[in-house]
Amino acid sequence: MQDDPIPFVRFPNGAEVPALGQGTWAMGEDAGHAMAEIESLKAGIDLGMTLIDTAEMYGDGGAEEIVSQAIKGRRDEVFIVSKVYPWNASLKGTVEACEHSLERLGTDRIDLYLLHWRGSHPLAETVAAFEMLKASGKIGAWGVSNFDTGDMEELLGVPDGANVAANQVLYNLSRRGIEFDLLPWCQSRSIPVMAYSPIEQGHILHHPELIRIAKAYRATPAQLALAFLLERDGVIVIPKTSNAARAAENRDCVSLEITDEDWQALDAAFPPPEKKKPLEML
Fold it and tell me: Which residues form the active site (predicted)?
């Protein structure tokens, strides 16, 4: 099944990335798990899941250090996404945080650098820092995370704010609020959406309807939940696992061909929003 290609998503700067990547939330927190985490990321890279998402927040930088081990000797094969804490996102602080992330990652560039969520520093200041980092070649592009539609509209109003390359938000079958306005807003402007926690940290995998439909395709509930997100235009999905076999399972979700009838059954089990909802976060 892994012969089926992973679909690609194009960023505004022309960079193309696999729509199925790898997350690293909670990695780097326990030295006893480090080898399994590294091997899982390596396995994912081998399978074409070459986008790796991390952040200075994850494991207090430990996840970035795990990534550095996983990509050693393979930097040009991968697309690295990292994030700056909102309280570090001043003009000077953003640059310094990026330098620290680069050091932990063992690389000279981050392909996509995100503001993790909104804080007290003015957006114009953070964007100016991002643009400086981009001009110096330390980042390839910049974006945001946990921004709702109003935040995105405000961002586009600041100098160079229109250069935003992505918005990473909580999105899965049980958290479909962005489908009402934020997702179409981003899609209409060709701004990719990165879906974090795509299986709701495993909580949705026991849903009887998800299990029933997955069994019909000889798939796991997680594979079906990932396939649901991959059906959306411009969405990049970043499941996290520390198990190499599970990474291969995740990769196989791209081979699922779900009927319209079963998509409708999933909609009935996990209804799409009928009105605007506040952006959810974890």
Answer: 58
